[in-house]
Design brief:
This protein has helices at residues 38-45, 92-95, 135-154, 169-179, 193-202, 215-222, 238-244, 268-273, 286-297, 303-306, 316-325, and strands at 2-8, 11-16, 26-36, 60-67, 79-82, 85-86, 106-107, 119-123, 127-129, 161-165, 185-190, 206-210, 228-233, 248-256, 277-280, 309-312, 333-336. The chain has 337 residues and is an alpha/beta fold. Helix 4 links the parallel strand 10 (161-165) and strand 11 (185-190). The longest helix has 20 residues, at 135-154. The chain binds zinc ion (ZN) (2 copies).
Length: 337
């Protein structure tokens, strides 16, 4: 089969590999759609910590069942969504039903070869039905699930004032799921005007703010002086994560959605005076995937607006570097095969 392999940072090639053979009880999938995200760009640029090359990227995946074990849950030809978080089922976290932060977690396309290839074998528990979704919508479930999970971590109350920092795909997912909670006002902050305008056009529930000199004052006004009940940082930037605490109200919470390699510093008196919560959010669980699937079914996700770019998978080695050079207008690119 054909695979797209990142052999070393900056080098993406088409490689002929042998077709995978499913272990007993596993299904074989024909890959159909592969969403691209910041993680893939990081891997390509050599910025991902602890990543081993060569690597087949691809963790935002949908496909079709090609072969299924006898008495399996799926039938040949079924369209499916893939959960790329392969958890062990046995560690302290898995036993608490938190497989999203499994001690031994392996993410397809990051820690193990992913979906930028023709066929993939997986255990049935990593696969959900995509009935009623387009294949491209099915490939968007994973990144939206990260937003849905972060919102569940934030435990929003009715009428909460929410700030999402970072208007990339993950931040937009967070903002959408926050807006589904009762009477929540959602502000979105980004350094990039183009992204803020895109976000504002996505939902009437969003108020956009660009990082500029008086933005702190404007955010304070937006919340009538209180600052925000829950702040989500989806920037992947340590300075922004530190700054996000300034936007959190007394008794409020700050959810770190994206991860950085750096240490995060904050003032303890500031933190204590607010009795603030700082909450980590990592990946997503099955319940988050199901929540996203449900919201797509009910037409609440502007999936065609989010899917800004498309490419044939075999053209990706040529296309990916151009998107890294000029990412303007790029929200969610999806590779097809
Ligand atoms: Zn992703
Ligand atoms: Zn585990």
């Amino acid at each position: 089969m054909k695979s797209i392999v990142c052999t070393e940072p900056g080098k993406l090639i088409i490689e002929e590999r042998s077709d995978p053979i499913p272990p007993k009880g596993w299904v074989t999938l024909k890959m159909k759609r592969i969403g691209l995200c910041g993680t893939d760009f990081h891997i390509f640029k050599g910025l991902h910590p602890f990543l081993e090359y060569p690597r087949v990227m691809g963790h935002e995946l949908s496909g079709e069942i090609l072969e299924t074990p006898r008495n399996g849950r799926f039938s040949v030809g079924d369209k499916v969504i893939i959960n790329p978080y392969l958890s062990c089922g046995d560690c302290v976290s898995c036993k608490k039903s938190k497989s999203n932060c499994c001690v031994n977690l392996k993410v397809l396309g990051v820690h193990t070869d992913g979906g930028m290839c023709e066929f993939l074998c997986l255990p049935e528990r990593a696969i959900y039905s995509a009935r009623g979704l387009t294949l491209s919508e099915a490939a968007m479930v994973e990144f939206l699930s990260i937003g849905a999970h972060a919102v569940s971590r934030g435990q929003l109350l009715a009428g909460s004032r929410i700030l999402v920092i970072g208007a990339g795909p993950i931040g937009l997912g967070v903002a959408l799921f926050a807006s589904f909670e009762e009477a929540c006002a959602v502000a979105i902050l980004d350094v990039n005007m183009e992204r803020v305008v895109f976000a504002e056009n996505l939902s009437d529930a969003f108020s956009g703010f660009v990082v500029e000199d008086d933005v702190d004052e404007r955010l304070r006004e937006f919340t009538k002086g209180d600052m925000f009940d829950v702040v989500f940082d989806a920037t992947g930037n340590a300075k922004s994560m530190e700054k996000s605490l300034d936007y959190t109200s007394h008794g409020g919470a700050c959810v770190f959605v994206s991860v950085v390699k750096d240490k995060i510093k904050f003032s303890d008196p500031f933190f204590h005076a607010r009795e603030m919560q700082i909450i980590g959010s990592r990946n997503a669980n099955r319940v988050d995937f199901e929540n996203v699937i449900d919201k797509i079914h009910s037409g609440k996700i502007p999936s065609s607006e989010l899917n800004s770019h498309n490419v044939n998978l075999l053209d990706l080695p040529r296309q990916l570097p151009t998107w890294i050079e000029d990412g303007s207008g790029l929200v969610k690119a999806i590779a097809h095969l």
